[in-house]
Design a protein that fits this description.
single chain; 187 residues; alpha/beta; 5-stranded parallel β-sheet; 15% strand; globular
Amino acid sequence: MTPNGRVLTAVVCGAGPAAAIGTLVKLAHDRGWKIQIVATPAALEFFDEHAIADQSGTPVRSQYAKPGAPRSQVPDAILVAPATYNTICKWAQGISDTYALGVLAEATGLGVPTVVLPFVNTALASRAPFRRSVESLRAEGVKILLGPGGFQPHPPRTGGNLIDTYPCITVAVFRSVTALQLSVAHG
């Protein structure tokens, strides 16, 4: 935790709700979090990187920092939203071929409280690799909000209809992030 409050790293993946990342930044600030945005390469196509950096007060990171460059703060908690099929499956398998996956792999090993809000369709969510990945990450202590009380997968080719409601789900996610972060701190 920083002297000015809690630090949240939001890992944003390349899916439609990434366009609403500004809502997530506002929710974080309203709840007393300093927020750092880490984006997958695909996520950068969904939002204005400079506008989000201005809003969050920190640069959007999508690549490793060069030696001597300023580094991100170690977070008190991590939120992955929207979390895609690709990111969840690669993360569970230990693949670290992007900065975002490297952050997630290390944070999982360090036990940083992490909450995941997937954005996947029913066809992808039904696949055995995805189900195994979700269970593997849960076994490592990652809280994945999928199923009752969390994100419900949508039929293929209908995700665009859900983008406006996805930010509303993040309010519940913040309760989960805060509860998880506090339980680890007092555990």
